[in-house]
Amino acid sequence: MLQRLCIRNVGGISRCEVFFEEGLTVVTGESGAGKSSIVRAIEIVVGKRAQATLIRAGEEEAAVEAIFQTETRLSGLEDELQPAEGAFFAKRSLSRGGRGRAVIQGNPVPLLLYASTLGQLVHIQSQFAQMELLDAGHQLAMVDSCGGPPLLATLSELHEAFERARLKFREKREITERRAEIERRYANAAEVVPLVRKVNPEAGLEAGLEAEIAALSLQAENRAKIAQGLDQLTGGLAGRGLLDELEGICKTLMECLPAAEDVASVKRMALDGLQNFRDITEIVHPYAGSPEISSEEIERLEQRLGALRKLRRLTGARGEEELLAYCRDAEENLTWLERSYERLERASREAGDSAQSASDAAQALRQARKLAARVLEERVNALLGSLAMEGVAFEIHFTELPKLRRDGADGVEFILVTNKGAANERSGRVDKIASGGELSRLLLALQLSLSDEWLPPTLVFDEVEAGLGGRAAVLSGLKLRELSRKCQVILVTHEASIAALGGRHYVVRKDGGESSIQRVEGEERVLELARMLSGDVTLPEAQEHARRLLAG
Fold it and tell me: What's the CA dihedral at 464, 470, 476, 478 to 10 degrees?
């Protein structure tokens, strides 16, 4: 429960500290005294949306601290943030600059975590917040809370099956999308893969092939020139060559020259020269080789180079690095594609099985909810008469949703029937047909009808008796007091008959623009009730009426 509330610079309150206890606590005061500042402060400290306009005029920052008495372990919190020795501390500050701060057990935390945690301890209900309690999600949760362990077990089974189906359908979708992407990206795989195997791409391959082809081309050209020169010298297959002609010329010359000493040396020179040319041809001959061998190698290399360039065109690679990356990815992805069909079949089968399990659980849940709805209807209708709502009946209608969700396939509507059984009977959704007073009492009946686990440790009501009066207000007050036996109830009210039912009574007063809150007892409480009844605290009749209310 909320044990201590410290407010600084909220609305008309400069600084105040309030201590709360179990049961029903009422807060009263003149209109404009600052009662709403108390509620706004509680909204701030539990993490509701807050604006800088809530900061007291002339101040730059507002802050609200709360201490709760609880032994409950709060969901979503780390161990160091859990209640310690039965106490839980929360603080939230606002600034005009827009920067706020949320603190749990002395540690700063994100506002989302802060709000979800404090929401487990305090619920605030006002005449403007009734729709929050009556949305479809809340209504469905109210029904489920009346179904007991069997319904909750079925709901848990549905959650598990739905989650399994969701994950399997997501896996199936991801596999299908990846298969489609690979098939799109490698649509020409039938042509690319053989080229990859033929080319066997590696770093520097294109430049290496070009250099090797150029070297072999030059080598082939030189061998052809050498062969041509040798053929000219030796005559080749044709017969006589330059050497034969030169030898014949030399022989003729030698025969024509006289037998002189210097002529003998010329003959020797001629023979040596001819022999030198013959030696050259022998030495050079192996370098002539066969030009066909070089041509075949060049052709093989040119084919590989052509295949490499075609591969780049097909893949759209702008360079070797991109091409190598493409080839690595292609090998990996195409291998995955081959193996993915079995995974896709398995995921499809498991997704279908999980979806069927979820559907079966949803059907069982629907039947359990119908039984739980009858229980809740009976409980609420049994209370409406004691809340001055005779002739009004509460009904719960279900609709079958077209799509299964995590919480089932049931739509729910809370229906109110007025003038039950009469000719002018009317029915409709509670938020469409009920007046503000009827809606307040219906919500009170719902809260009294639900299990204790549904109720938070602290409930704050902000003038929920608005629109009520007389007997309806008194009966609602009695039910609020009954509700306070299940949880702590803090009620801001203008209704004296309800205020008299509180176990503790606080009054908000304003003096010179400063709001303060004080606990009243005994004669002070009588005077406050007298003010609420007549506006005149000195009126004896009002004081007597106030004493009777307190005595009653």
Answer: 130
Structure tokens at 32: 């404009």
Q: Domains for the chain: give ranges and CATH numbers.
A: 1-121+456-515 (3.40.50.300), 189-335 (no CATH), 520-552 (no CATH)
19: which residues sit within 8 A by CB, 6+ positions away? 3, 4
Structure tokens at 265: 């040396």
The residue-averaged pLDDT of 263-276 equals 83
Render the burial of 69-104: b for 16+ CB within 10 Å, e for the rest: bbeeebeebeeebebeeeebbbbbbbeeeeebebbb
Residue bearing the bigger pLDDT, 193 or 457: 457
Q: Is the model's pTM score more than 0.70?
A: no
CB-based burial, 120-149: b 16+ in 10 Å, e otherwise: bbbbbbbbebbeebbeeeebbebbbbbbee
State the residue for tokens 């084919």: 303
d(CA 375, CA 360): 23
Spatial distance between the Cα atoms of 300 and 186, rounded to a whole number of angstroms: 27
Stretch 375-402: mean pLDDT: 89
Mean pLDDT of 282-295: 75
Tens of pLDDT, residue by residue over 35-68, are: 889 999 999 999 998 888 899 988 999 999 999 9
Measured in degrees and rounded to the nearest 5, phi and psi for residue 18 equal: -125, 135
Contact criterion met (CB below 8 Å) for 209 and 304: yes
Give the residue, 75 or 268, on which the prediction is more confident.
75
**E strands in 178-293:** none
What does the CA dihedral 274, 275, 279, 284 come to, rounded to 10 degrees?
0
By C-alpha distance, which of 500, 482, 480, 476 is closest to 490? 480
Euclidean distance between CA atoms 460 and 133, whole angstroms: 13
CA distance 113 to 110: 5
HEC assignment per residue over 150-214: HHHHHHHHHHHHHHHHHHHHHHHHHHHHHHHHHHHHCCCHHHHHHHHHHHCCCCCHHHHHHHHHH
Spatial neighbors of 419 by CB under 8 A, at least 6 apart, are: 391, 425, 426
Residue with tokens 């709760």: 68
The residues, any chain, with a CB within 8 Å of residue 379's CB and separated by 6 or more, are 146, 445, 448, 449
Q: How far apart are CA 521 and CA 516, in angstroms?
A: 16
Tokens representing residue 66 in the block: 């709360």
